[in-house]
Amino acid sequence: MSGSPSEDSSAPHLRMVWAQARDRVIGTGDGMPWHVPEDMKHFVQVTRGNTVLMGRATWESLTPKFRPLPGRRNIVLSRDPDFTPEGAEVARTLDEAVDMVGEGADVLGGGSIYAALHDMASEAIVTEFDADAIGAVRAPELSPAQWRAAETSEWETSESGHIDGWDGPVRYRFIRYERIENQTPMVD
Q1: What is the chain's pLDDT, residue by residue, as a tens digit (188 residues)?
Q2: How far is CA 163 from CA 13, 21, 88, 102, 125, in A?
Q3: Residue 144 φ/ψ region, left for φ over 0, alpha for ψ in the -120 to 50 degree band, beta for the rest
Q4: How far apart (Å, rounded) are the C-alpha atoms in residues 125 and 16?
Q5: 3-state SS of 86-110?
Q6: I want to staple 88 with a disulfide (CB 3.0 to 4.6 A). Which of 16, 43, 74, 118 is the partner?
Q7: How far apart are the first and last CA of the chain?
Q8: What's the CA gap between 112 and 138, in Å, rounded?
């Protein structure tokens, strides 16, 4: 692959989608350390009807009744030749995954998938929680030199959400980031 999203018109539009705590924690390694219904509703609104790309661990962290994610084309990246998830397509390499998405996809993680595709992504949709969370998996840093917040919602408080280990109310907001033109690294 050559070029970048802003320089190569044939490059797919990759949009990273995640929720994070203040310290960029996005997961524990086997799931998310929170349940916030408003975030789940937003996730469905953002991704429904789209192709979604995720790693095997993210796929396996989904509740079985939601695998595959309904109303979406599901692509799972896994090097395991015996892995054949029901209702999803499998890509065995990163290049194969990028080829499979066609015009674009919502990248759902996990951490290593975000890291691998970060330089190719042109947009990020982030739910930000005003709370600390315990977890080993972190979102990629969106450097202000390369990314700008194009839309930021007001802070709201979840009616019933909770974050493991957090005693306070769960405040959240949604931020849509765009890559700053001409700041995309070359992808070989």
Answers
A1: 334 444 455 789 999 999 999 999 999 988 899 999 999 999 999 999 999 999 999 999 999 999 999 999 999 999 999 999 999 999 999 999 999 999 999 999 999 999 999 999 999 999 999 999 999 999 999 999 999 999 999 999 999 999 998 998 999 999 999 999 765 554 44
A2: 32, 9, 30, 36, 20
A3: alpha
A4: 6
A5: CCCEEECCHHHHHHHCCCEEEECCC
A6: 74
A7: 5
A8: 9
CA torsion sign for 28, 33, 38, 41 is positive
Contact between 18 and 139 (Cβ < 8 Å): yes
Which residue's entry shows tokens 């970060």? Answer: 118
Amino acid (1-letter code) at residue 89: E
Choosing among 2.60.120.380, 3.30.200.40, 3.40.430.10, 3.80.30.30, the CATH entry for 13-179 is 3.40.430.10
